[in-house]
């Protein structure tokens, strides 16, 4: 497992390193410079990112949230103090675990595990949502194509669907492909 630790303080980074010492086959990278951080993380390609920000200013916090938004990785963020606005911003930025005043070596592994589990759960939810939206969009397209066939050819709804299904089977295509072709042809013929 590749873990990137982002911390401008070598002392705080060593606490995180100590907490990760028990992990087998773990490759740890410590980044202390904010400049070029996204590119450096891209080169490292870590499995997990741990950010220790101590007591950051609002600007620094926002900069790290911007980094979080572009990473598609589990992220645990450690801060000394927080407020509701910062917590909400961290959730929006995709931070998997936001830990306030909790940097201790013995807590690193459970926090890391939690960040990974939350990230995976959220990723599954996003995938399920994308699939559901895709299926809904396909259903709407198929319904629109059925309406076109019903209006233009005076077919009842079951017959319009049966014709689309028959065309899909005879052309070895999906019914959504046939529906999209019907809609495109209708537009080209001056339909709305």
TrEMBL record:
In terms of Pfam families, this protein maps to: ANTAR (PF03861)
Keywords (alphabetical) are: Phosphoprotein
Response regulatory domain boundaries: 2-116
- Molecular function, one GO term: RNA binding
Instruction: Write down the PROSITE patterns for this protein, in alphabetical order.
Output: ANTAR, RESPONSE_REGULATORY
Positions carrying 4-aspartylphosphate: 52
Q: Residue limits of the ANTAR domain? A: 122-183
| GO annotation, biological process | phosphorelay signal transduction system
Q: Which InterPro entries match?
A: ANTAR, CheY-like_superfamily, Sig_transdc_resp-reg_antiterm, Sig_transdc_resp-reg_receiver, WH-like_DNA-bd_sf
Q: Does tRNA processing appear among the keywords?
A: no
Q: Is the keyword Cell membrane assigned to this protein? A: no
Q: What is this protein called?
A: Response regulator NasT
């Amino acid at each position: 497992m590749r873990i990137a630790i982002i911390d401008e303080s070598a002392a705080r980074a060593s606490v995180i390193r100590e907490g990760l010492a028990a992990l087998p086959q773990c490759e740890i990278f410590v980044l202390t410079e904010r400049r070029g951080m996204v590119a450096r993380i891209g080169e490292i390609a870590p499995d997990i990112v741990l950010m220790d920000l101590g007591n950051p200013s609002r600007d620094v916090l926002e900069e790290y949230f911007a980094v979080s938004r572009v990473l598609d990785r589990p992220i645990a963020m450690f801060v000394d103090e927080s407020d509701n606005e910062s917590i909400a911003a961290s959730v929006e930025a995709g931070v998997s675990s936001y830990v306030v005043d909790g940097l201790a070596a013995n807590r690193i592994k459970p926090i890391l595990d939690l960040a990974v589990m939350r990230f995976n759960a959220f990723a599954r939810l996003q995938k399920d949502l994308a699939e559901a939206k895709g299926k809904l969009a396909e259903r709407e397209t198929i319904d629109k194509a059925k309406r076109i066939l019903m209006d233009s050819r005076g077919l009842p709804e079951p017959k319009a669907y049966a014709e689309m299904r028959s065309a899909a089977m005879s052309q070895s295509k999906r019914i959504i492909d046939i529906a999209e072709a019907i809609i495109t042809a209708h537009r080209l013929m001056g339909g709305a």
